[in-house]
Fold this protein.
Amino acid sequence: MKILFVVSEVEDLAKTGGLADVAKSLPIALRSLGHDVRIVKPYYKQLADKFKLENVSDEQQVHAGDKEYRFNIKRLELESVPVYCVDYPDYFHRAGLYSDGYQPFGDNAERFAFFSLAALQTARAVDFQPDIIHCNDWHTSLCSYFIKRDQSGFFARTKSLLTIHNGAYQGSYRFADIPFLRPHSELAAQIDSHGNLNFLKMGIVYADKINAVSPNYARELLTPLGSHNLYHELQSRANDVTGILNGCDYQQWDPASDTWLPANYNSESLKGKKVCKKALQEEVGLPVKDGVPLIGMLCRLTEQKGFGYLLPILGQLLQHNVQVLVIGTGDPVISDVLQFNAAQHPDKLVFRDDFSTRIAHMLEAGCDFFLMPSLFEPCGLNQMYSLAFGTIPIVRAVGGLRDTVLDLQMLPEQATGFMFEAPDSSALLNCVRRALLFYHEYPDEFVQMQKRAMRHRFTWYDAALNYQALYQNCLPMDN
Ligand SMILES: Nc1ncnc2c1ncn2[C@@H]1O[C@H](COP(=O)(O)OP(=O)(O)O[C@H]2O[C@H](CO)[C@@H](O)[C@H](O)[C@H]2O)[C@@H](O)[C@H]1O
């Protein structure tokens, strides 16, 4: 099959979160199944600073009424997957991808409506007539609409799939302010009472199929509580909504060969993990103690990740014989509270307002537990990385976390972690206490759990097979 994978961010090129991990690994896995998959993404400053790329075609155009927007197409290869980059400096040559660090850019609607049109124009320019356009999240949802209404005939046989990586971000903007959409009366008919058009909703309405990044999140999306206020739209497409679990890139996340780590280890021997713990404690300034459990947390600082019920019990949690390390950037209100608590408990809590690939690997390897108490979690990748590193996840039973972690109480023989149900502080605190008790009281069983976790596999190969079947499902029978 010919697949055009349209996405805003890609690991190694430009990234703000888990979407980028998927946008690298899935196309590579699909390529290994023999499909002709090509990525289209914006030529962000982050990417332009790293790779000075040449144009691969004449200047291209997108129109908004009488106005012409001229852009260039650059190309590179990511492990033999072609990546076309839409080069339009006015929209994409900025320090951030979506915001200046404080506020979202005021023209995000315009930027991503343009990008969706430009991605389709890129396919035409390089004469790549896809069977499937695979759209990802709100940024590229409009492609599903545009191919259905395309006048050129180029996409007459093309079907579209929308993958929802995070349904909380929907891109809802004043329709009248988006020059590229003004001629589309069909979209104008879909605005809400405030005059806003919801980009993700348009993907849900117009895509041939829709999938979420885990089976459990797909089920949650079809409930009033889990639908991020898109219940009616999702329910009306219920027969076309499925879930495919993300994979884990075990080349990148392998403690036996990881070059970011001070020592390597595997599921036969965890000796190197102790070295990693010591190095991590030293690096972040925690007392170097082996018998004290170290809980790590690494994420974007947002409400989604469960800070609403974690922050109120941090003090209680730190009364235990434990060390906690939180690393991530994001909401300044959350970082202020973390900073305040860290100043009060310097020997027990460290917060780093920071993110780098190196520190991510160091944290995943050096901690005993990985905390991910998310309010909602479409799939979650960090819990898979922590399983691969023998770092026991403590998670809320929600979204993909429920699909990937097996709780000790429920499945004592197969358990790989600890889970709690209710999104509240006491359920979280009880769960962490349960995990700490197990660590202190059953050290041998704890090591067995670590080894079991390390052997658990969620491969991109399996995910790619499922996507392949879903693409087939989008296409007419004769394909
Ligand atoms: N401050 C920061 N800056 C840059 N990178 C950071 C960062 N903090 C963490 N990261 C990195 O981003 C990735 C996080 O992936 P997750 O899946 O855990 O969450 P995210 O919410 O971003 O993704 C969404 O999309 C993915 C992919 O489908 C779903 O798994 C997930 O549930 C959904 O919320 C990891 O590679 C991590 O190391």
In short: The mean pLDDT is 96. The CA atoms of residues 310 and 425 lie 6 Å apart.
